[in-house]
Amino acid sequence: MSSVWQNNKLLRKWEIKHFKENANGDFNYNLAYPLEDPLVSAISNYINVKKDYIYVGAGISQFINAIVGLKNWENVILSDIEFSLYKRTALLNDKKIIFVKGIHTEDFINNLKKVKTSDKDLLCISSPRWFNGELFTKQQINEILDIYKGTLIIDEAYIDYSDDEKGMIDICLENDRVIIFRSFSKKFLASGYRTGYMVTTKKIEGLRNTIIPPHSVTSYSENFFVSLLNDKKILTAFVDTREYIKTNRDLIYDSFKNIKSIKIIRSDANFISIIFDDNKLMNKIYDSLSDLSGIQKFDEVVPFIKIWVNNEKFSQEIIKRIRKIII
Fold first, then answer.
1. Looking at the predicted structure, is the pLDDT value of residue 171 above 80?
2. Among 70, 91, 124, 246, which is least packed, fewest CB within 10 Å?
3. What is the mean pLDDT of the chain?
4. Secondary structure of residue 296 in the 3-state scheme
């Protein structure tokens, strides 16, 4: 997927055309006036949110390190299966971690109800979820905010592969206990540019200064995404690309959703995960797929294989190899 910029003639032509103007070195990020950042303005126009609520950073990783590490939190509450940087950051900052079980979103919420929380707690969830791509609904997020007293991070790195690109922005703007993380890495298949943004109305003293220094988003990345967000033709091309990936993702899901020997959960991300009760079966399937790019195996909490979806040929090859083993 990362090669889409090389393989797509329209994108490659656009990148070459804009390279000189984006890399000319004239961009000056003025730390004294962060709200004048051109990328903050471009994001503000794109998602129709006031600039005051938008923060630009070097990908979601920078936001995780900055927010999870704040002294404000007594407890950091995590899903027991989540992107590992949340756990590592909490541990590095001597936070008490409370893990909540739940393979499905409804299971997670039911188990969260058993946790006693306060306004000094930080709950971090991903939607679509990091490990299986399952999406929390608006009703579920509102339920979480009713039963949970603290601040909520919703990591929406994969939201553009769902059927609701807007995600939980409206809830975020209405509730100052909500912080949303977004990434351009997944949206534009451009992980090397290390750029993302955060949306929140929450007032945390020094929050903007916490995100900015050292401002590690390069001037090229800033200019690159400003140009991209203002180009309707390129934005449409990415919508088409993501729809193509979603189709090939659903092709894998539909092929195995009724197979009892594995558990496959409908994903709203650019990957799909297969969950196993039998480690031997997981290892056998992983060995048959491991020569392909975009295949990961995890077995810390529940055994699962994560498949990063590419083109139709890739999905058909995945289906063929797994069928040889389980059917």
1. yes
2. 91
3. 90
4. strand
